[in-house]
Amino acid sequence: MTSARRKAYGVKGAPYAFLLPATILFALFFALPIGYAIWLSLHKVQVKGLGLGSGARSEVWAGLENYTDALTDSELLHGALRVLGYGAIVIPVMLGLALLFALMLDTDRVRLAPFTRLAIFLPYAIPGVVAALLWGFLYLPDVSPFYFVLDKLGMPQPDLLDGGPLYLALSNIAVWGGTGFNMIVIYTSLRAIPAEVYEAAKLDGATPLQIALRIKIPMVAPSLVLTFFFSIIATLQVFSEPTTLKPLTNSVSTTWSPLMKVYQDAFGKSDIHSAAATAVIIALVTLALSFGFLRTANSRTRQEEAR
């Protein structure tokens, strides 16, 4: 009886044993850092006198003071507005191209489809810093072959790293690197649609354009929602592109994006407590936007299914 109980306990406890390594890793490398960041955001460094000697600097409770300072910081607000403008360009263009490429690759008339898929996806495999450096030097008039060709043709040479064109330059890097990943997600959903659906539509006289607009796009709507969700998160966390282009132009400040401000506060000003508060705010905003978008998408899906 005792051995039977042990066997039954072992069977019931097996799933927990398999989950234990993942749980430990999640706690050490995800939950614990988040908790430590929240703890830092609720404290500050208090300086006594000139701040010299032992005990002159001490960590004290600050409550919500760091959050208040972050929310009233004009640099963080301006960085958020810049990221919103950046996202207004990147997200629709990137997802539009991804959907277009996926629909084109899903047709029977496309030749060399495997090579084309690889060519479109390949920029995503290039690290963001490398891609930003590559495009950064292509934007510089002194070393870019594009400016050389424009000069020989007598055409105007716009400065893409100054003023308004800077948004287009940064957006181009993100679109070039992220379109391939989103295209693969959408294309995979297209390939999962049964062929009988297309055959029935063709028998009813539907053209390829009508099949794409009335069958393919509605059926890959969950994939579009997923890619849009990922794109929102990536846009709010933009960091490597403007940071890499910063040495090449004076138009990119050290606080161009919210994450750049976090980096500047933590390592430029050595104020890790304010940086932690700003990071927590960014995480909460990202969570709120993502949750709101997913909830809206799910409610619409339920309404359509009810109809």
From TrEMBL:
<feature type="transmembrane region" description="Helical">
    <location>
        <begin position="83"/>
        <end position="106"/>
    </location>
</feature>
<dbReference type="InterPro" id="IPR000515">
    <property type="entry name" value="MetI-like"/>
</dbReference>
<dbReference type="GO" id="GO:0055085">
    <property type="term" value="P:transmembrane transport"/>
</dbReference>
<protein>
    <submittedName>
        <fullName>Sugar ABC transporter permease</fullName>
    </submittedName>
</protein>
<keyword id="KW-1003">Cell membrane</keyword>
<feature type="transmembrane region" description="Helical">
    <location>
        <begin position="118"/>
        <end position="140"/>
    </location>
</feature>
<feature type="transmembrane region" description="Helical">
    <location>
        <begin position="219"/>
        <end position="239"/>
    </location>
</feature>
<comment type="similarity">
    <text>Belongs to the binding-protein-dependent transport system permease family.</text>
</comment>
<keyword id="KW-0472">Membrane</keyword>
<dbReference type="InterPro" id="IPR035906">
    <property type="entry name" value="MetI-like_sf"/>
</dbReference>
<feature type="transmembrane region" description="Helical">
    <location>
        <begin position="272"/>
        <end position="294"/>
    </location>
</feature>
<dbReference type="Pfam" id="PF00528">
    <property type="entry name" value="BPD_transp_1"/>
</dbReference>
<feature type="transmembrane region" description="Helical">
    <location>
        <begin position="166"/>
        <end position="187"/>
    </location>
</feature>
<keyword id="KW-0813">Transport</keyword>
<keyword id="KW-0812">Transmembrane</keyword>
<dbReference type="InterPro" id="IPR050809">
    <property type="entry name" value="UgpAE/MalFG_permease"/>
</dbReference>
<dbReference type="GO" id="GO:0005886">
    <property type="term" value="C:plasma membrane"/>
</dbReference>
<feature type="domain" description="ABC transmembrane type-1">
    <location>
        <begin position="80"/>
        <end position="293"/>
    </location>
</feature>
<keyword id="KW-1133">Transmembrane helix</keyword>
<feature type="transmembrane region" description="Helical">
    <location>
        <begin position="16"/>
        <end position="39"/>
    </location>
</feature>
